[in-house]
Design brief:
The chain is an all-alpha fold. The chain contains five helices and no strands.
């Protein structure tokens, strides 16, 4: 009987080991397939985001002049169309990538759409010709932020999925976007300070009169 138990145990152990090996092989194959899909998606996304950064930079660099000239009416007008929200690939497995990154990327288009509505509102209700400064500043402000945001997302994807960094040569698009954003924010701070000072002066005059 003892020999029978040993044989039965060995047989059972063989079945268990075989099952474990099968499960491990299946898990490993699924893991490799998921990693392959994730890297493929990451590469597709990085290409989209890199192109979008360039589009954002074009918007920021748009000074409203056509070959250095204003319109016949002496006005500035956009020479670069706002890119709107980036078109993200739909024929891929989004569940394959990190979920936090997936949310940051997939929520981005709606943020762009909201900003475009703000820009349109400034254009129609605030900006005044011939320079339309408020429109150009609002548009540059948002798209400078969007350019930096997609650069950050692309950097995370590159780091996580082993994608080489983009070589911009002598150009520094990220530095240009940062500079533009800093200049706008500093200008708005000065304007806000001036408004507050003028308001305080008005209150002071009303109290003494």
């Amino acid at each position: 009987m003892t020999d029978q138990y040993v044989v039965a145990f060995i047989g059972l152990l063989g079945v268990v080991i075989g099952s474990v090996i099968t499960i491990f092989q299946t898990f490993w194959a699924d893991r490799k397939e998921r990693d392959r899909k994730a890297r493929y998606l990451a590469i597709r996304l990085v290409c989209v985001l890199d192109k979008y950064l360039e589009d954002c930079l074009s918007v920021v660099n748009d000074d409203g002049l056509c070959c250095g000239q204003r319109t016949r009416e002496g006005c500035l007008e956009p020479q670069v169309k706002s890119p709107g929200a980036p078109v993200l690939p739909s024929d891929v497995d989004w569940k394959s990538i990190d979920h936090a990154l997936m949310y940051d990327i997939m929520s981005f288009p709606s943020d762009v759409e909201a900003a475009d509505k703000e820009i349109a509102s400034v254009d129609s209700e605030v900006a005044v010709g011939p320079d339309y400064d408020d429109f150009f500043e609002e548009r540059s402000f948002h798209y400078a932020k969007f350019g930096l945001r997609v650069h950050g997302l692309a950097s995370k994807l590159r780091k996580k999925y082993g994608i080489p960094a983009k070589d911009y040569g002598w150009r520094d698009p990220v530095g240009a976007l940062k500079k533009e954003l800093e200049e706008i924010e500093e200008r708005r701070k000065r304007q806000q300070t001036a408004i507050q000072a003028a308001f305080a002066e008005t209150e002071k005059s009303e109290k003494t009169s």
